[in-house]
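#help-structures
NK: newbie question, is this the right format to request a structure? protein is FecR domain-containing protein
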Amino acid sequence: MNATPLPPHNTAGLRPQVLDWCVRRQRADWSTADEQAFQQWLEADSSHRPAYLQWEQHSAAIDAIPADALAQLRRNLAHDKAQLAAAEAPASRAAAATVLRRRWVLPSLGMAAALLMTSGTGLLAWQHWQAQPLFTQAYASERGRQLEVQLPDGSQLRLDTATRLEVAYYRDRREVLLHEGQAVFSVQANPERPFHVLSGPVGITVVGTRFSVRYTPGLAGSDGVRVAVEEGKVRVVRRDGAPGPALAQIPEAQTLVAGQQIRADAQGSLHPIQPVAAEGIAAWREHRISFVNTPLAQALAEFERYGSTGLTINDPAVATLRLSGTFDPSDTLTLRKILPHALPVRLQQVAGGLEIRAAR
């Protein structure tokens, strides 16, 4: 028998009611008065009966949540209760933060409690339950600006210039989709909800740590992914489009600890792990960018991520000159002064700015 589809506009609002009736009808003290109230509810709206029948059909098809899934749900519920208690404590941080936590924790508690009390919802309900995000939000930093974000569980993000990402928290995992740019992640530990960063062809999984990820797909010479670990440990894989939950099943992984970094090309092929000094991890937090024997055109493109330099290169020979040094990406005046001394070039005034040309 095919399940009766729910009207899309009623689905979210009806699920708590349907689950409530499912739970109550299985109790030993279910009475004639309760049955009358249930029948009245079924007749109160044309969407109620199809909604309830859908859950009954799911229940008939699969009669129980797997034991391991049920155990995980109980653990998630306990964790949510602890977060809610912390948010409501007098010593909680700020009222705004408390409201944010409650917004995503409270629905989780109600639905999880209902699922724990009924075995009739089955595996299908469990899968649907796991697939619904508790919290979603998109963040973007402006060109030349940084952005700091605190997530509902206390994890923190710091976005560099021109960075776009999306955050989604589920009951069994936390995910960030990094579309472009670079960010530092300070992740609160929660073994029951691993933290995944999906960055182009690469997936990163952590439990609790601080690390940086860079992904600039449109930047020539720097269109891959770079991951550097400041604290803790992360697992990096070539994901080939795999979603967050599947990352743990990918065997070809590299594990990074503090003081290590790894790069991947645009296709996701991982390079060997390399050491990295603490000051070299996300130096942009201190308004520094560094180049080591970097083609001038690539270095200039990096400056342009932070703001217009007013500089152009038209000579291929000039574009391949190598630049080394540490700079403030917002200080283009100093860059203009340094270039003729650091490289065999001169700056020529042209329409719309300055062109970097070979020295005569």
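mod (FA): yep, format's fine, and the tokens are attached above. The chain has a mean pLDDT of 82.
NK: thank you!
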